[in-house]
Amino acid sequence: MPRPDTGPAATALDRPARPFTRRFEAIGTHWQIDTDHELSPAQWLRLAARIDEFDRTWSRFRTDSLINQLAQGAGTVEFPSEAVPLIELYRRLHDGTAGAVTPLIGGTLADLGYDAGYRFTPAAAVRRTPGWDESMSWDGPVVTSTRPVLLDVGAAGKGYLVDLLGELLTSFDVGSFVVDGSGDLLHRGPDQIRVGLEHPGDTTKVIGTVPLSDDALAASAGNRRTWAGLHHIVDPRTSEPVRDVVATWVIASSAMVADGLATALFFTAPQQTHQLADAFGADWLRVLGDGSAHWSPTFEGKLFS
Amino acid sequence: MTATETNHQHPPTPDPLPVDAARRDRRRRTIFASLAGWTLLGAASVGLVACSTSAASSGSTSAAATTSSAATASAASGSAATSEASAATAEAATTEAAAAVSASTYQDGTYTATGSYTSPGGTEEITVTLTIENDVITAATAEGGATKPPSSQYQGEFVDNFAALIIGKDIDDVSLDKVAGSSLTSGGFNAAVETIKSDAQT
């Protein structure tokens, strides 16, 4: 939750254009919001309430969440209207990756050890990820499942929350801000910031930089959230973590799209990568397991050489 | 949007990603910029025409050539910085240049230059060949000379935006407010281009 313990803004990403910085923890990770003018306590409370509402709806890691009702058995659950863009994005990514991106991965992730108790020990039998159409159907924000399903919106949920907080800030008439959901960035303002691209094998290094202006950037890599030789980007078709791709970065007009695409690009062949990203008007950079890097023709970042 | 379209009474379809199109347009503009600024042909042909124009004391020709370059780049959008796109740009510029130009800055001919760059596997070379007619580049090819795997395996894709191996720098050593590097192949490509431009100067 946002707390008024404003720390010094002296980080590598120091942004003097936005001197008001707050860091806090939410949905299991670190957040930072930088603004050009100071928010009121009431505005921070509204941001906190928005985060809490999101968490209570979508968290796979808390038993009282709405998403966990679906794990109890077949039935119909009505989500808040915020579900519609998220689920529609998931469907597009699902279809664009031959089913590799799917919210139904939740059960498989949990069995691999990435569960509510952070058990991080793979179960003896890992659940197969069920197919989308055979297990649930969405009508707007209303989902009907034909079986118990454990959904996980980790591929795009954090980015979506970044966008939702950005919308709130905009509604507060904050014209210049950066919402940083631990690597999922939303920048609004006339200036440009330069973002370092973290080395997928060494978090003390960066492999290049990319400018960001009035856009969103998301990164995804297997080097974080690693356990027992596994990591959290799992191919539902094999129930195994992806090894061919080690890191992705996507720049898109929304953090939700950037976040979701960053995961999707772990599963796409080169041709698919171009097509899928183009469909979203997104730019991307991808590092493969052999250490090579590939990027979209209009990617404006620079890699070190 | 026409009046007919706005009169449709369909229920509004929720568009989950209404800004996709806007960002795509911005990317297209970026492609133009990258074709004009990054590739040798976009930059060279516009520059050449501009030179000739000043000799002919005509301001409008330069603008026309620039426009025609941009229009051609638009047709080639999505394949930024390929030889094909660049050659097409040059070809469009030829028409404009031929109409207006008498003074020549570059000698006609085919020029080849080799640029080198340092990859993690050692020094690699890339060869660029240009054909210049009437101060306009009418053909261009680029060929990698890499023999060391994995560079040889990938170098042919350099126009497709590729680095054989990522290089990490300590975060503390990097000013994240500045561009601190360029990709391997485009450095060699640009070096070869610079050599050609100076060789071809009369």
Strand order of the largest sheet of chain B: 1-2-3
Parts with pLDDT < 50 across at least 5 consecutive residues of chain B: 1-18, 31-102, 146-159, 177-190
- The proportion of residues in beta strands of chain A is 25-35%
* Total strands of chain A: 18
Helicity range of the residues of chain A? 25-40%
Largest sheet of chain A: 8 strands, antiparallel
The unreliable regions of chain A are 1-15, 223-231
Task: Tell me, rounded to a whole number, the average pLDDT of chain B.
Answer: 46
What is the N-to-C order of secondary-structure elements of chain B (H for helix, E for strand)?
HHHHHEEEHEEH
In what order do the strands lie side by side in the largest sheet of chain A?
Answer: 1-2-6-7-10-15-16-17
Structural class per helix/strand content of chain A? alpha+beta
Distance between the termini of chain A: 40 Å
Structure description:
The complex is a heterodimer of chains A (305) and B (202). With 305 residues, chain A is an alpha+beta fold. Helices cover 27% and strands 29% of the residues of chain A. In chain A, the strands form 5 sheets. Chain A has an 8-stranded antiparallel β-sheet, covered by helices on one side. In chain A, strands 3-5-4 form a 3-stranded antiparallel β-sheet. The longest helix of chain A is centred in the N-terminal third of the chain and has 18 residues, at 41-58. Chain A is globular. In chain A, 50% of the residues are buried. With 202 residues, chain B is an alpha+beta fold. Chain B has a 3-stranded antiparallel β-sheet with strand order 1-2-3. Classes of the chains: A alpha+beta (305), B alpha+beta (202). Strand 9 of chain A pairs antiparallel with strand 5 of chain B, so a sheet runs across the interface.
